[in-house]
Write a structure and sequence with these properties.
Length: about 210
């Protein structure tokens, strides 16, 4: 009997250790509300997780999605639906790091691809955003097909499109091409994607189940 009780306690241990996550608000928006491009060929459902107290407002998050939509639309990709999740989490999870990201993803699961709007990053060197695709998530499968953007990000809509393109192409490569979205530094001038990038984005995204 004592052995059985111990086994049950050990089995429940990980669940009991999960951080407290409180859902503050959930809203869902369809493609028509998000400016879906005409003649799109591929669809993406996106979850956006905003951490309350992390420096993001709901309005800024929505504007980022609206700005990213036509950028990805040049490749024939449209947001079919975007679901916003506003959640409260412990202060230890407000900043990105691989351990905290894995902990958050286990505690509050959302469909992929998913974007997490966080306060800051503990990574060094520090980046304003990070994309976790299939190729760089083998040791952290809980956060595959996710994007993490800090509140300090400039031009968040362009950053969102840039990082989603990394996930869709499953590549961390950057481009030296003038005005290309995938240059290593985001800028309002850098929003174009080449035909080859679009083809890879669509093909790899579809193969990985991120696009339909």
């Amino acid at each position: 009997m004592r052995a059985l009780s111990l086994a049950l306690l050990l089995a429940c241990g990980p669940a009991l250790a999960q951080p407290q996550v409180t859902v503050v608000e959930r809203q869902s928006f369809g493609g028509d509300e998000l400016g879906a491009p005409e003649g799109y060929t591929h669809r993406m459902r996106l979850a956006v997780v905003l951490l309350e107290g992390g420096g993001w407002t709901r309005g800024r998050a929505m504007v980022a999605v609206l700005q990213a939509s036509p950028i990805l639309g040049q490749c024939g990709v449209a947001f079919e639906r975007v679901e916003f999740h506003v959640i409260e989490v412990p202060a230890s999870l407000l900043d990105f790091s691989t351990p905290s990201a894995r902990e958050l993803a286990r505690a509050y699961s959302v469909p992929r691809p998913a974007v997490y709007l966080v306060r800051d990053t503990k990574s060094r060197p520090a980046f304003e955003a990070e994309a976790i695709g299939r190729g760089n998530s083998r040791t952290r499968p809980e956060i595959a097909d996710t994007v993490w953007i800090t509140a300090a990000a400039r031009d968040p809509g362009i950053v969102l499109a840039h990082e989603l393109a990394h996930v869709l192409m499953d590549s961390g490569e950057h481009s030296d091409e003038e005005r290309n979205l995938m240059r290593d530094e985001t800028s309002p001038r850098n929003t174009s994607l080449s035909p080859a990038q679009c083809a890879r984005l669509r093909e790899t995204g579809t193969a990985n189940g991120v696009l339909k």
